[in-house]
Amino acid sequence: MTAPTASRATRPELLLNPRDYASAARTRLDRPVWDYIAGGSGDEVTLREDRAAYDRYRLRPRALVDVSRCDTATTLLGQPVAFPVGIAPMAYHQLVHPDGETATVRAAGTVGALTIASTFSSISLEEIAGAAAGPLWLQLYVMRHREVTASLVRRAEAAGYQALVVTVDTPRMARRERDLRNGFRLPPHIRPANLDEDHDPGLYQGSSGSSTLAAHAARHHDAAFTWDDLAWLRSLTDLPLVLKGVLTAEDARRAAGLGVAGLIVSTHGGRQLDGSVPALEALPEVVAAAGDRCDILVDGGVRRGTDVLKALALGARAVLVGRPVLWGLAVDGEAGATQVLSALREELEEAMALTGRPRLDAIAPDLLHRSAHLSPHLTDDDRELA
Ligand SMILES: Cc1cc2nc3c(=O)[nH]c(=O)nc-3n(C[C@H](O)[C@H](O)[C@H](O)COP(=O)(O)O)c2cc1C
Ligand SMILES: CC(C)CC(=O)C(=O)O
C-alpha cells in the first residue's frame, strides 16, 4: 500500500497498518486537530488501558485444521457484512479531509463494512446515505430540544438508515485537557451538517482554556435523559435501537429488557470517564447479561486483526474502529480509509488461518490465554499513536 505523497524523493511511504497511517497522519494534521482525535479525557488512563487490555491476551492456536478458506462474513442486526469490523461514529470527518464522511462511507462500501454516522457529521446524513453501498446506522446524541432529536430520527428513516445508535456515555463531554490547552474550536468551513446551518455560532469562537465542542455539548446535550425517556425514543420509530457506551451487566440487562437490539461496549475511546473499566474487560459481563438477546459490539483500541479475534473470542459479534479510519482518511481520503479497513480484514483472515479458526462461529474463549504481563512490543511512541 502506498500513499500518494512520497516521504523521500525516491521512495514512497509504505503504509501497512493503522499505526503507519497514524504516523503519516500526524505529520499532515494541525496539532489541535491531531490532539482532538488522538486524545482522551483526564490523565488518559482509560485511553491507554483500552489498548493495553488487548495486549494481555495471548492466542492459543490449533494445528492441522483446514484453513484453505477463511470466512469472515457475518450479520449485524440481521444485515450481512463482509467482516466483523465497522466504522465507529465520529464527529466532523472534514476536519481531516475535504471529502469527509462521503469518502469514509464509500470506503466502507468497498470493503463491505458497517458505517455508523455521527449526529455531528460534517456531511448531511442524507448525503452520507446517498454514497453508502453497505449497512448504515445513525448515531444519536439526545438533545435538550427533543424536536431536534425527533427530526433526526425521521430523517434517518426517510434516508434508509437501518438502526439508531444512542450514545449513553456523554450526558456531558468530559474534560479533554489537550483540547483545553489548544483552545479547540471548529474551523469556519466545517459545520454540523445535520443541524441548522446557523445552529450555534459558539462552535467557532473559543480561546485557550476552553473547547467549543465541550461548551456546545453542555448547551445542547440532554443530561437529564434516562431509561424512562428511552420509551419516548422507542415510540418515535420502529428502527432497531442500539445503545453505545454500556460497560456493566446491570445496564446491559436493563437495556435488553427494554427491547434494545444491540449494545456497544465502549469507553468512547477513552474520551469520557477516565478511569473506567476498559471496554474489552467489560465485554464478558455484558455478553453474559445480554448476549442471548442483543448483538454485542465493542470498540476502543482495536488496531490489529488479532485484536478483532480476541474481542470475538470474548463474545463480541463485531468490533468498531474509530481513529484508524480518520488516519487513513487524513493520509489519502477514500483510498486511505479503504486501505486501513482492508488491512484489518486481511490481518483478521490471516489470524483465523494461523489460529486454526476458519469460521467466526468457531471463535470462542478457548482461543485465549490471559497473561499477567503486557506484550512488550509497544514503545512510548506506539502508545501515543494507539
Ligand atoms: C474524533 C472522534 C470523534 C468522535 N465522535 C463521536 C461521536 O460523535 N459520537 C459517538 O458516539 N462517539 C464518538 N467518538 C467515539 C467513537 O465512536 C469510538 O467509541 C472510539 O473512537 C473507539 O475507539 P478507537 O478510536 O480507539 O477505535 C469519537 C471518537 C473520536 C476519536
Ligand atoms: C462533538 C463531540 C460530542 C463528538 C464526540 O463524541 C467526541 O469528540 O468524542
From TrEMBL:
Keyword set, alphabetical order: Flavoprotein, FMN, Oxidoreductase
Record has Flavoprotein as a keyword: yes
GO cellular component entries: cytoplasm
Positions annotated to bind glyoxylate: 36, 141, 167, 176, 268, 271
Keyword Protein biosynthesis: no
Gene Ontology terms, MF aspect: FMN binding; oxidoreductase activity
SUPFAM superfamilies: FMN-linked oxidoreductases
Binding positions for FMN per the UniProt entry: 89-91, 118, 139, 244, 266, 299-303, 322-323
Cofactor dependence: FMN
InterPro entries, A to Z: Aldolase_TIM, Alpha-hydoxy_acid_DH_FMN, FMN-dep_DH, FMN_HAD
Catalytic center residues: 268
Record domain FMN hydroxy acid dehydrogenase: where: 10-373
Record-stated family: Belongs to the FMN-dependent alpha-hydroxy acid dehydrogenase family.
Name assigned to this protein: 2-hydroxy-acid oxidase
